[in-house]
Amino acid sequence: MARLGDLERSVMDVLWSADDWLTARDVAARLDHERDLAYTTVLTVLERLERKGFVRRQRAARAHRYAAADSRETVVAEAMLEALGTADDRGSALVRFVGSVSAEEAEILRRALEPAGADSTGPQSTGGDTAEAGTPGTDTSGTAAHDGSAAAAADDSTGAPGDDPATAP
Q1: Mean per-residue pLDDT for 75-84?
Q2: More confident call, 144 vs 60
Q3: What are the boundaries of the region Disordered (predicted)?
Q4: Beta bridge pairs of residue 64
Q5: How many whole angstroms separate alpha carbon 65 and alpha carbon 38?
Q6: DSSP assignment string, 31-75
Q7: What does the pLDDT read at residue 45?
Q8: What CATH number is given to the structural domain containing 33?
């Protein structure tokens, strides 16, 4: 997944915090930036984010409206997986990551790794690769899964506002 520049991240922050689709003018008005940005600059950034897959666009009268394609949590999880994919020793990188999180975050990870309904007193791993082919929420290609993985489960709002075409203006 492509990385976000500072202005792109600011635009995404506006879209993630919105309850509904926004026009480019709405985004420009909500941007909390050091300098005033021209409407055309914001429009260019939105178009670039759409090409990168971060933003969805829909036609509304004469203007386009924009919404985040995925939740912030999904994008962060994909970035973490991408970074992990660059490590020579993924296991070592994971151990270092887990060692750097708070006790509360470690507990969240523990719960996310437990199979549903499993007794948490016994060992959870039988060794080998934990991503099994055909298991929902697993993806062995190095990209995040969008079908019920722990990252997607952390936020139920992975769709964009107003996803239902029947309610779109």
Answers
A1: 92
A2: 60
A3: 112-169
A4: 59
A5: 17
A6: ---SS---HHHHHHHHHHHHHHTSEEEEEETTEEEEEESS-HHHH
A7: 96
A8: 1.10.10.10
